[in-house]
Specification:
This protein is α+β, with helices and mostly antiparallel strands and 253 residues long. The protein contains 8 helices and 15 strands.
């Protein structure tokens, strides 16, 4: 079966602190040739990276130290490559680039790929698919719709990426589910075990109600898997749908 190569633009959103990836993005182009896809992908990635203000990125904004490892790796790379120390460290140990800092133009493909890797700063994504591309979204059964951002559904290149996002962002918070363990789950013994081991999930025997009180992310995922009627599922999204999703680059508040 022939492969299809898809270049996807990763959308950014502007906050008071820095630009961050919110993962919706949009389809930039599709190719049947791997060489053509890679050439265009590197051209787009170079163009975006060369035009990026490093001081506006989450990795080098200085607003937090969540990207300490990435910032330190870039600091070492830049000093060794260009002999200049553009990554600063303030008195509080925060690593940052000053606003207006950009990378030199004319870097090699290997440099672009390496910077992209060590900083975890990505503007485009290149994926390959067997036959017609299929993407994945988080389907919310209560609303009969995909999880959205600004009216556009999130979509992911792989099932595992969608599941990771679900684990990061979705939880049951406070919810009451009516029924016996047998009515709620095809694995009532496992469900009862989860309830007994959690102080955030309770079961009222008199009312026959399962009650959640802000369970952890792992507990939420485990509970969802055990329920007959799931709160959310990972579903396929065909490329014909995601091609029509508008995406934003450096969207302003």
């Amino acid at each position: 079966m022939n492969k299809t190569y898809v270049i996807r633009k990763i959308a950014y959103h502007y906050s008071d602190d820095h630009l961050y990836v919110h993962t919706i993005g949009g389809i930039e182009n599709t190719f049947q040739s791997e060489d053509e896809a890679k050439t265009e992908f590197l051209r787009l990635e170079r163009e975006a990276l060369e035009g990026c203000d490093l001081g506006d990125t989450a990795q080098l904004s200085g607003c937090d130290n969540n990207y300490l490892k990435e910032a330190m790796a870039f600091k070492r790379y830049y000093k060794q490559k260009f002999g200049e120390d553009v990554v600063k460290v303030n008195e509080y140990g925060t690593i940052f680039c000053e606003r207006g800092t950009t990378i030199p133009k004319g870097l090699s493909d290997d440099d672009i790929i390496y910077i992209r890797k060590i900083l975890d700063l990505k503007f485009y994504e290149l994926s390959s698919f067997e036959g017609n591309p299929i993407f994945y979204g988080i389907w919310l059964n209560e609303t009969n719709s995909f999880q959205e951002y600004c009216g556009a559904p999130y979509f992911f290149s792989t099932y595992s990426e969608a599941l990771k996002k679900a684990k990061e962002n979705l939880n049951f918070m406070t919810k009451t589910l009516k029924g016996t363990f047998e009515e709620l789950s095809n694995n009532p013994i496992f469900l009862k075990s989860l309830v007994n081991s959690s102080d955030k999930i309770e079961y009222d025997e008199n009312r026959k109600e399962l009650i959640t009180k802000y369970p952890s992310k792992d507990e939420s995922i485990a509970l969802n898997e055990l329920l007959k009627e799931k709160v959310f599922e990972i579903k396929e999204i065909p490329i014909s749908m995601v091609e029509n999703i508008e995406h934003w680059t450096f969207e302003q508040m």
